[in-house]
Specification:
The protein is of the alpha/beta class. 51% of the residues lie in helices and 11% in strands. The strands form 2 sheets. It has a 6-stranded parallel beta sheet with strand order 4-5-6-7-8-9. The chain has a 3-stranded parallel beta sheet with strand order 1-2-3. Strand 5 (127-130), helix 6 (144-153) and strand 6 (157-160) form a beta-alpha-beta unit. The radius of gyration is 19 Å and the shape is globular.
């Protein structure tokens, strides 16, 4: 019998109490058990990891983090304090936790500086950005200092969804949002917004400017692996870059299984992107650990490939 692979989950969230208080009504929309898990950085989190066979969590702040803060200076200070508190938890449990930084993207230069501090001083493994920054996609050149610094530090940026902007909600979802609020989130709204960010990043030329830049998209790439061939074919009608969409996607993007435990979807992603760029994740506590690891243990892969998916690929990318 093959030995149990080392399991790393890297889209696993927490909520810093100060950040939660800044947004106020956020917790009113979340059940107390969810808030309890989000704020826990110790015993409860580790207990649930152990029960599901997860060896290490790479922890990141949950949405909306700093991306919806209009006061850029306040976002900078709040990000530093939240990152410091996460670093304390990582230091307390160094064999069980690692960290992704929260970035104050309303001030892109300060966000780049905070990324560097978090990596070089706190030992974080990259950063996570949630949705748009006050309605702006991050392929806009104002945000490129973040990508320049990520390349210099050789760490990835994880692009995570957030609730779409109000004009998008009004146009796309308003008919159904009251009766079926999930349409804004994991059912569809998250995917549309984040996949759009991925396509825009490729079109922007940021990967040509920073050829060592690496990005991570959760939820098996937000549909991009399935659509990559068609996107590539359609773009080439009037877009003549040095590298095609699929080439850039395959060279710079990594994806995780967060909240998406489907054999057919995984096999499609392997065929389009390659197994070495896919990493196991849960999306805890918004998704439970146990079903995720049960699926991982049964995926139709050989033991060597399952070990890569479970933790080997993440170890290599994040230098764990």
């Amino acid at each position: 019998m093959a030995a149990k692979p080392f399991v790393i989950a890297l889209e696993e969230h927490f909520q810093d109490p100060e950040v939660g208080a800044t947004y106020g009504p956020l917790d009113a929309n979340r059940a107390p058990p969810l808030v309890q898990r989000l704020e826990d950085l110790g015993e409860l989190r580790i207990k649930e990891m152990d029960a599901a066979g997860i060896d290490l969590q790479v922890i990141s702040h949950s949405a909306p983090a700093m991306q919806k803060m209009t006061d850029a200076e306040a976002a900078v200070h709040l990000a530093r304090r939240a990152n410091d508190r996460l670093a304390e938890a990582v230091r307390a449990h160094p064999t069980r936790f690692a960290g992704f930084a929260a970035l104050p993207t309303p001030d892109p230069k300060a966000a780049a500086d905070e990324l560097e501090r978090a990596v070089t001083k706190l030992g974080f493994k990259g950063a996570m950005i949630h949705g748009l920054t006050n309605g702006r996609f991050h392929d806009e050149r104002e945000f490129w200092p973040i990508f320049e610094r990520a390349q210099a530090l050789d760490v990835p940026i994880y692009f995570h969804p957030s609730v779409p902007a109000q004009p998008v909600i009004d146009t796309y979802y308003q008919t159904y949002v009251d009766a079926v609020p999930g349409i804004l989130r994991a059912a569809w709204g998250f995917t549309v917004e984040t996949a759009t960010q991925g396509v825009r990043l490729v079109l922007s030329g940021v990967f040509d400017a920073y050829p060592g830049l690496k990005v991570i998209f959760g939820h098996l790439g937000e549909g991009l692996p399935f659509y990559a061939w068609r996107i590539n074919m359609a773009l080439e009608r009037d877009w003549k870059p040095s590298r095609s969409f699929r080439e850039v996607f395959a060279q710079h993007f990594y994806v995780t299984t967060s909240g998406f435990w489907s054999d057919p979807a995984l096999l499609c992603t392997i065929q389009e992107l390659g197994l070495d760029r896919i990493m196991f994740s849960v999306d805890w506590p918004f998704a439970p650990n146990q079903p995720a690891t049960e699926w991982l243990n049964g995926v139709p892969l050989c033991a060597e490939d399952r070990a890569k998916l479970a933790g080997g690929n993440a170890k290599k990318l994040l230098k764990l």
